[in-house]
Specification:
The chain is of the alpha/beta class and 259 residues long. The protein has two domains: 129 residues, NAD(P)-binding Rossmann-like Domain (Rossmann fold), CATH 3.40.50; 102 residues, Dihydrodipicolinate Reductase, domain 2 (2-Layer Sandwich). Helix content is 34%, strand content 29%. Strands 3-2-1-4-5-6 form a six-stranded parallel β-sheet, with helices on both faces. A five-stranded mixed β-sheet has the order 8-9-7-10-11. Helix 4 runs parallel beside helix 5. The two termini are 24 Å apart. Bound molecules: NADPH dihydro-nicotinamide-adenine-dinucleotide phosphate and oxaloacetate ion. Pathway: Cofactor biosynthesis; NAD(+) biosynthesis; iminoaspartate from L-aspartate (dehydrogenase route): step 1/1. InterPro entries: Asp/hSer_DH_NAD-bd, Asp_DH, Asp_DH_arc, Asp_DH_prok, L-Asp_DH, NAD(P)-bd_dom_sf. Its EC number is 1.4.1.21. This is L-aspartate dehydrogenase.
Length: 259
């Protein structure tokens, strides 16, 4: 599978190292789309890839699938066009909190017979949540996210501060780089207006900790993930990058787990 990536930050670099240096199945990252070709030119030599700043040339570079590792604005601006030509993997899931955009992407996928893959990201439990929700059996979903204070707020704090308490729809507007996980949970479960989110800036922690509580006709579930951050971007958890790789790897398998 020849892969194109949009964005070359913490997750993009993780993927280039794992796939092109360490090797994962039959995958290869062939092309990377960036805003500033000069800034990222060194990647060509480092990972044996081609760097593009023109979208048409990137899409024509022999890639089978496009992985987004950029931001919400890039999904909104670039991916309707990209989806009309390629299957896509999106990690800035917050882009889909905009319901008009979500419907537009769904319609494009139908029209062009494309697939939009959404990795689980820095959490777990989506299998349970989706299964329980399929029969309308979920009554409540809550996410409590605790991150190192400096990744959420600029001012110094000596003790923990609740910086957000409300629904996922508003959480992603206020913290677009920190709470994409709330939108994948919303999509799997009860929706962005019903998924409860609390975000805590904690000066005493070094991990990104996501705790999910689900209640429904199946019973109840509680899952807490204590994530190591990626060195290149401490806002982003290692598991989020791994989940993109996992999503690509699962596509190649004949035996599909989960559901
Ligand atoms: N779903 C989840 O669980 C998680 C999602 N995320 C999300 O994943 C995304 C990537 O994270 P991460 O790698 O840590 O972010 P970084 O900030 O480390 O990297 C983002 C990269 O995207 C590039 N970029 C931005 N806009 C564009 C554009 N229009 N076209 C091409 N490249 C662009 C930036 O380049 P430059 O600015 O130099 O042009 C940069 O190289 C973020 O949106 C983040 O919020 C992160 C963690 C968990
Ligand atoms: O990586 C994480 O822990 C979660 C994150 O930033 C996000 O959901 O946007």
């Amino acid at each position: 599978m020849n892969i194109g990536i949009v964005g070359a930050g913490a997750i993009g670099n993780f993927l280039m190292k794992e796939i092109n240096h360490n090797g994962v199945g039959e995958m290869r990252i062939q092309s990377v789309f960036v805003r500033d070709q000069i800034k990222y030119q060194n990647l060509e030599h480092q990972f044996n890839i081609k760097v593009f700043d023109r979208l048409d040339a990137f899409l024509d570079s022999g890639i089978d699938i496009v992985v987004e590792a950029a931001n919400i604005a890039a999904v909104h601006d670039l991916f309707p066009k990209i989806l009309s030509e390629k299957d896509v993997v999106l990690i800035s899931i917050g882009a889909l909190a905009d319901e008009d955009f979500l419907h537009k992407m769904n319609d494009l996928a139908e029209t062009y017979k494309r697939t939009i893959h959404l990795p689980t990201g820095a959490v777990g439990g989506l299998d349970l949540l989706q299964n329980a929700h399929t029969c309308g059996g979920v009554t409540s979903v809550s996410l409590t996210t605790r991150k190192p204070a400096q990744t959420l707020i600029d001012e110094y704090v000596s003790k923990e501060v609740v910086v957000f308490d409300g629904h996922a729809s508003e959480a992603i507007k206020q913290f677009p780089k920190n709470i994409n996980v709330s939108i994948i949970l919303s999509l799997a479960g009860v929706g962005i207006e019903q998924t409860n989110v609390t975000i805590i800036a904690d000066p005493t922690v070094e991990n990104n900790i996501h705790t999910i509580d689900i209640e429904g006709s199946f019973g109840s579930a509680s899952l807490s993930v204590t994530n190591n951050p990626l060195a290149e971007n401490p806002k982003t958890s290692h598991l989020a990058a791994m989940s993109v790789l996992g999503t690509l790897d699962h596509m190649t398998k004949r035996i599909k787990l989960g559901g």
